[in-house]
Design brief:
The longest helix has 21 residues. The N and C termini lie far apart (66 Å). This protein has 3 helices and no strands. It has 73 residues and is mostly helical.
């Protein structure tokens, strides 16, 4: 007896995200450094990401102005 099963794209995406979340938790639990060191490292990465994200609006504005100059209002 043969049965066909199909997975929608949303099911595949949710499964991948769930697997990534479980993998991240396991990695944190099995990390060779202490909790304090891990939190400091994560905090550093978050600070770096926030700094980069804070520059995005200005970069988009500059890109928009440059595109308008090239296209010509």
């Amino acid at each position: 007896m043969e049965t066909k099963t199909s997975c929608s794209a949303s099911t595949v995406i949710l499964a991948a995200l769930g697997g990534a979340a479980v993998g991240a938790v396991v990695a944190l639990l099995l990390a060779p450094r202490s909790g304090l060191e891990t939190r400091r490292q994560i905090s550093g990465h978050v600070d770096t990401a926030m700094g980069a994200l804070s520059r995005v609006p200005e970069a988009l504005t500059q890109a928009s102005h440059a595109a308008k100059e090239v296209i010509g209002d």
